[in-house]
Specification:
The complex is a heterodimer of chains A (518) and B (296).
Chain A: H1 2-39, H2 43-61, H3 66-92, E1 101-103, H4 105-113, E2 116-118, E3 124-130, E4 135-142, E5 145-148, E6 152-153, E7 159-161, E8 163-164, E9 172-173, H5 176-181, H6 183-187, E10 190-192, E11 198-201, E12 206-208, E13 210-212, E14 214-216, E15 223-225, E16 231-235, E17 240-244, E18 250-255, E19 258-259, H7 266-273, H8 275-310, H9 318-330, H10 333-343, H11 350-359, H12 369-396, H13 401-409, H14 414-442, H15 445-451, H16 471-480, H17 488-517
Parallel strand pairs in A: 1-19, 7-10
Antiparallel strand pairs in A: 2-13, 3-4, 3-9, 3-12, 4-5, 4-6, 5-8, 10-11, 11-12, 14-15, 15-16, 16-17, 17-18
Helix pairs in contact in A: 1-2, 2-3, 3-17, 7-8, 7-17, 8-12, 8-14, 9-12, 10-15, 12-14, 14-17, 16-17
Chain B: H1 7-38, H2 57-62, E1 67-68, E2 74-75, H3 81-112, H4 118-129, H5 137-150, H6 159-166, H7 171-183, H8 187-194, H9 199-210, H10 212-227, H11 231-236, H12 245-248, E3 253-254, E4 257-258, H13 260-280, H14 282-295
Antiparallel strand pairs in B: 1-2, 3-4
The chains are: A alpha+beta (518), B mainly alpha (296).
């Protein structure tokens, strides 16, 4: 006994050593990465790494957090992929982050400082003469004057000075193809003109002298144009560099690229006050609520009725019916939605062909707002009723059968049974599930994206918006669809509002299910 | 129970059958139609439910074969459907294995241990799970752009990154497994720990073997979930060769390139394995859904 205990202990001390070495190593690597990220101005990501790694190291190092070791990986995954993106999105909502304002101020300033312009009267036409394999000589001409470089080696990029010349050109004139092939090497050549300006290749047939366009002033933000002497200052409200006049007020147009600045509650006030956004937003919000509500109602009605019928003892072939009825749930949704998209197609779709043949009807499923909404509800009911049916089949078993026997003695029919026994008894356990279903459909992005992509469009909207868009797909389109410029800030503001709605639903759901357990 | 069936009752049974027949026909119409369309000639032809002149051209294209027409012209497969199917299965398979591992260990601690912040964490997980990833796509894109700079195989346009992104969705599974663990009697584990087993040993040797059915349910649910996920995959994956089915299938039905017949064959081909798995696992899934549902 003693022996085994001892060997067990030495094993555990060795394991302990390994654990501490691994933890130390992880801390060092992560610490280095955090410093690196912080140095590159990626404060948010540095913070995320720090929190995740530090909490992990603490949990695995301490003995009294043994239980937390089991939940750490799962919770860490949730923090990184759900909670962090959520916080980040809320953060974006308070900035002007968009297609035109994507970079940080420092990066934009760097871009301005790397802009160059061509000095007037500095363009030299050139011809390239090949003497030997890598030996070349460049001959320049400007305003009738001829200049030549000494013979240079193509593979070694050197600095050479031009000299005025009248000598004959020797060697073979290289074709344009040769210049294109060696464009990169030639681009690295710096040639000093006879009056002392550095020349670089600015075209396939010319070299010219270029100099920086802007000069940074001592305050580290003001730029002065060396071309015309105008003064640029960053406008911290719009996130663009702009010209200023003598009094220091911003004049003239905004110069791209813009940078990200904090805009406070601007994006939120835009949702409610900007006419081009407020109108579609309210319209889409109402449709989203109607859509989610009607979906829950239709799927519940169908699911509960079908579950009641399929559970009926007298009915033969229940298993087959059950299988067939579950089928829409078994086919991956992205495939069945696309199938419906094709079937409902206005010109070639089978549904319109059928309707035309039978009733001489031709319905504009994708261009008429009401028909588009009808189509979406039909498709979503098809997709959604099997889930409710499965849930109801499980819950129906818990209703005591003697209730039905008693009602049969009283002479009640199946319809009475359904409305007076089944429905009231089912509503209580179903409520949290229905709230969850409402929340899911409130955000049913895939259905809209694959079926209509929001079509038909709402006219007079300043952002991409359609009659069948739900809030989520509307948000997605503001962020990722071009047209009016990708407005990540506004999209995030709407996303934040949706977060609040969904969070409220989740809390409500939790309370309802708690009441039931009590 | 009524022993003598009234005539009324018999009529009701007939009516129920009739109703179910009509209803099933309406429900199955789109699925049958798409199978019929996959055997029709061309991408625009109309026809009846049973094609008059069946052809295998769409199926050949879906399987990646080149079709030679009667007039000698050649049609190349428009998209690598089988590759997409393989991508989907690969991503979903690895995702669900990791999700099962993460959520079982989590659920074990929540079901059997006492620790600080347990209730807050459990409820917090459930609330945060309800926020759709679509709304945080800008943030997810930025996140994976950043991750890719340090760990290239987890960056944008990689399957590793996509799998990583799906790992956040474990809350519902944790609740489902936790509910199942709580139905298992604790006495076996208590006996084992009296004999000197560590919590990890009791978890691995006693609880896990008893929980295989619920782990299968969670595996299938997360597998189906990962296969049918569209928004995150379509933001993270850029190359056509990297697409999963859920991203790729949309390519067939753009108005400027409308390949209805080819789509039908590809859709049937790719839906078949997933649907088959789902129907085979149906019995357990129904149990798992209701169990998870009752709890959350």
């Amino acid at each position: 006994m003693d022996l085994t205990l001892e060997s067990g202990q030495s094993l555990s001390t060795r394991a302990n050593w390994i654990k501490w070495i691994v933890l130390t190593l992880i801390s060092f690597v992560a610490g280095y990465a955090v410093v690196l990220m912080y140095a590159q101005n990626e404060t948010i990501f540095a913070l995320l790494t720090l929190v995740i790694v530090a909490s992990g190291v603490v949990i695995f190092a301490r003995e009294d957090t043994y239980s937390h070791r089991y939940i750490y990986p799962g919770i860490a995954a949730m923090v990184v992929f759900i909670i962090f993106p959520l916080m980040y999105t809320i953060g974006i909502a308070f900035t002007n982050y968009s297609g035109t304002n994507q970079l940080t101020f420092e990066r934009v300033q760097k871009q301005f400082l790397s802009k160059t312009y061509q000095q007037p009267n500095s363009v030299y036409q050139f011809e390239l003469y090949q003497l030997d394999n890598d030996q070349i000589q460049l001959h320049f001409e400007k305003q009738g004057e001829r200049y030549s470089t000494p013979v240079i080696n193509l593979s070694a990029s050197e600095k050479v000075t031009l000299a005025s010349t009248t000598l004959e050109k020797t060697g073979e004139k290289a074709p344009l193809r040769f210049i294109i092939q060696n464009r990169k090497t030639l681009g690295q050549l710096t040639i000093i003109s006879s009056d002392g300006f550095p020349l670089t290749m600015s075209g396939l047939r010319e070299f010219s002298s270029t100099t920086p366009l802007y000069e940074l002033q001592e305050d580290q933000i003001t730029l002065v144009s060396l071309l015309d002497g105008s003064v640029l200052k960053p406008n911290m409200e719009t996130g663009f560099y702009q010209n200023i006049d003598e009094n220091g007020t911003f004049v003239g147009r905004e110069i791209s690229p813009g940078f990200v600045v904090s805009t406070g509650w601007d994006n939120f006030t835009r949702i409610f006050l900007d006419k081009g956004i407020q109108g579609p937003f309210i319209q889409i919000f109402i449709w989203t609520v109607i859509f989610a509500g009607l979906t829950v109602l239709f799927t519940l009605a169908l699911g509960l009725v079908l579950a009641s019928i399929v559970q009926w003892d007298e009915l033969k072939g229940k298993a087959v019916y059950r299988m067939l009825l579950i089928l829409p749930y078994a086919v991956p949704a992205f495939i069945s939605i696309l199938i419906f998209k094709g079937l409902f197609n206005q010109s070639f779709g089978e549904i319109n062909q059928l309707l035309e043949g039978m009733f001489n009807l031709k319905i504009n499923w994708f261009t008429d707002p009401y028909m588009a909404k009808t189509m979406i509800l039909i498709v979503n009911t098809w997709l959604g009723y099997p889930y409710i049916m499965i849930l109801c089949m499980g819950l129906l078993k818990s209703i005591p059968t003697d209730l039905y026997e008693a009602s049969a003695i009283d002479g009640a029919g199946p319809i009475d049974n359904f409305f007076k026994i089944t429905l009231p008894l089912m509503m209580k356990p179903l409520t949290p599930l229905l709230i969850a279903s409402f929340a899911f459909n409130f955000n049913n992005f895939v259905l809209i994206q694959l079926l209509t992509n929001g079509a038909p469009d709402i006219i007079g909207s300043s952002t991409p918006a359609g009659h069948t868009d739900l809030l989520v797909s509307y948000t997605y389109r503001i962020a990722f669809e071009g047209g009016g410029g990708q407005d990540f800030g506004l999209a995030s503001a709407i996303a934040t509002l949706i977060f609040i709605v969904v969070g409220g639903l989740a809390l409500l759901n939790l309370r309802v299910s708690k009441n039931q357990q009590a | 129970m009524a022993i003598v069936k009234s005539k009324n009752e018999k009529n009701r049974v007939w009516f129920a059958h009739l109703f179910l027949w009509v209803f099933c026909a309406a429900i199955l119409f789109p699925l049958l139609m798409v199978i019929a369309i996959s055997f029709r000639e061309g991408n625009f032809a109309s026809g009846s439910l049973i094609p008059s002149d069946p052809t295998l051209e769409h199926w050949k294209l879906a399987l990646g074969m080149v079709v030679t027409h009667a007039d000698g012209s050649i049609t190349n497969p428009p998209f690598p459907v089988l590759l997409w199917l393989w991508n989907s299965i690969k991503v979903a398979g690895i995702t669900s294995i990791i999700i099962v591992a993460l959520s079982t260990t989590c659920a074990y601690a929540f079901a059997r241990m006492k620790f600080a912040g347990k209730k807050v964490l459990l409820e917090g997980m459930l609330i945060f799970q309800m926020f759709p990833a679509v709304l945080a796509l800008v943030a997810l894109y930025a996140l994976f752009d950043k991750v890719g700079q340090y760990i290239p195989f987890l960056g944008l346009n990689t399957h590793g990154g996509l799998i990583f992104a799906y790992l956040g969705g474990i809350a519902l599974h944790v609740w489902t497994i936790k509910g199942y663990f709580e139905t298992i009697d604790k006495s076996l584990e208590e006996a084992a720990s009296l004999d000197g087993a560590t919590p990890w040993q009791t978890f691995r040797m006693i609880l896990l073997p008893l929980s295989v059915p619920i782990l299968a349910v969670v595996f299938i649910l997360s597998f189906v979930g990962a296969i049918t996920e569209v928004p995150v995959a379509s933001i993270l994956l850029v190359d056509v060769d990297k697409y999963t089915l859920a991203v790729g299938m949309q390519q067939y039905l753009y108005p400027q390139n409308y390949l209805w017949g080819d789509f039908a064959a590809a859709a049937v081909l790719s839906a078949l394995p997933i649907t088959a798995v789902f129907l085979l696992a149906q019995k357990w899934l129904v149990g798992g859904l209701t169990a998870g549902g009752n709890k959350g």
